[in-house]
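does this look right to u?? iron/sulfur cluster version
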Amino acid sequence: MGKTLFEKIWDAHIVVEKQSGPSLIYIDRHLVHEVTSPQAFDGLRMNNRKVRRPDLTVATMDHNVPTTNRRLPILDQTSAIQIQTLAKNCKDFGIQLFDIASPNQGIVHVIGPQLGITLPGSTIVCGDSHTSTHGAFGALAFGIGTSEVEHVLASQTLWLEKPKPFEIRVEGKRKNPHAVTAKDIILSIIKNIGTGGGTGTVVEYRGEGITDLSMEQRMTICNMSIEAGARAGLIAPDEKTFDYLRGRKYTPKNYESLVDYWRETLKTDSDATFEKKYVLHIDDIAPQVSWGTNPGMTCDVTDSVPSPDDYSKGDQNQKKGAQKALEYMDLKPGTPITDIKVDRVFIGSCTNARLEDLIEASKVVKNRKVSPHVRAMVVPGSQMVKQQAEEMGLDKIFIDANFEWREAGCSMCLGMNPDILSPGERCASTSNRNFEGRQGTGGRTHLVSPVMAAAAAIEGHFVDVREMDLS
Amino acid sequence: MEPFKKIKTIVTPLDKVNVDTDQIVPKQFLKLIQKSGFGKFLFYNWRYDEDNHEKQDFVLNDKKYKNSKILVAGDNFGCGSSREHAVWALQDYGFSVVIAPSFADIFYSNCFKNGILPIVLDEQTVEKLQHMHDEIEIDLENQVIITPEEQIPFSIDAHRKNILLEGLDDIAQTLQFGDEISKFEKQSKIPSVL
Ligand code: SF4
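got this back:
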């Protein structure tokens, strides 16, 4: 019987397999950042262990770095300690680090692909749940906890239960691909299958709606796999994938021979079976806006805030959840989404802060001004993205419109640095989680695409970006 | 890690679904570089108001549950961020068992690394346990929960059960497979980063 792409990558990485229970899986790439690693390095020291393969390990600082002037000292003492700790750990254990002064610094899931560290057919882990992003390149990539970080540092392997393959087909063509984006596709999927819809699975995204996407858009899709509960999400590599990685800083020397091999091997066999299937038709989908406190609580921009009864379809737990969410979000059922005013706009995060995202958003912003009651910011996903955007003059477009233009980092995606919402503030955000307090205690997050966020900044409330003149 | 022993206490009911790790430990407390001391931050935003006073209506602030080691929660517990700090906080606070209809994958596997037993039971049973006022006993060895009325069996992967029961050091065990790992590395097609 044929195998799925995921099963092929899995099988190619089994070090030890037993009759039942987890298998020992080899890890090809380990990405490390400052928040989930200090206790892991401590554990190594306590047991006199070393890092088995520093040459397969790469570190950066992203989660709590300031996004303002990098030459100033970090004011937050605890953040500063965490950042110094990572620098010391990398030095002690011989790990390549892109620190705050490096031109290669950035959000770990943005720099991996950009530097050619992410490779098709490889296994990639990081102590961060959005590691699924790298699946866009046909890698098996997933987030792990700190104990597992320590385990990988020491052994370059992990004991894993094999997840089940889940096929999500995206069929059709978007009518207006500048206004209806990859973010709207993935939010639609999560809205339909729910935040637990992918639990225990690895999703393979397939179909015309996926192969049509650029690499950066595919990363947006795979990035949010975890928001549907999936362990990972991946997309079979094609020529777009191979072109994207060609000639990058750390692309392997024998790249072309690897590509020949990947072309032959990295695809799902026609007679392979998936445990689970879901199909989304995208011909008519609208831009999406989340209204609640998890990414599944999302609707079309043309809709109104749903009532808990309509949303829950009879499920009491869901109903309770929706009531609580509406209370937290301070929204009334029946309010048109386009009537919701925003105080803040955040264009950033590993979901939507790559060059293409900024280019698309800048088209909305060009020759316009941010609404006077809105504070808007752009935080590029990496210093490289920032530099490329500046070479194209995008920074000027945003700054002229009264956006703040920042240094790279996670920033207000999770608000561990000084970029946070104040209690009660409402934000149109291109990030991936709208949980209570995610962007700051009491802050209210609406997840949208970069163009939708940009449009909300200009108008001061949500608008259907399909109706804006983007010429 | 300490071997997992039989546990007998009352349960702490947390009647919420989709409890994410941001709620279990809010991110402002992730900056510590040790594993200990996270218990005081557990469910911080639910436990304390803006002036850091205990919120009386939150279950953890009810003295009755002070010695409970068993948390019983709703569906999809531990979703969101992969932060292991969530498990460290539960453990440091004093919980050894979490029961729910389902868990997020990463959270579930993080539990075993820190001596916490996550138990999946059907929704009805979980609800019944949430309303139970008597002590219940968790017997991992025999995979059963003993309440005054009944015995509720639960399933768990044999490998993971063993890790908890023996309190094994995961990494030491894995390093015994050093030869297999080296052999794998020799034939691997994926080159070094640098
Ligand atoms: S941008 Fe947000 S989701 Fe992405 S790695 Fe940083 S904190 Fe995690």
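The first strand of chain B starts at residue 7 and ends at 9. idk if thats expected tbh
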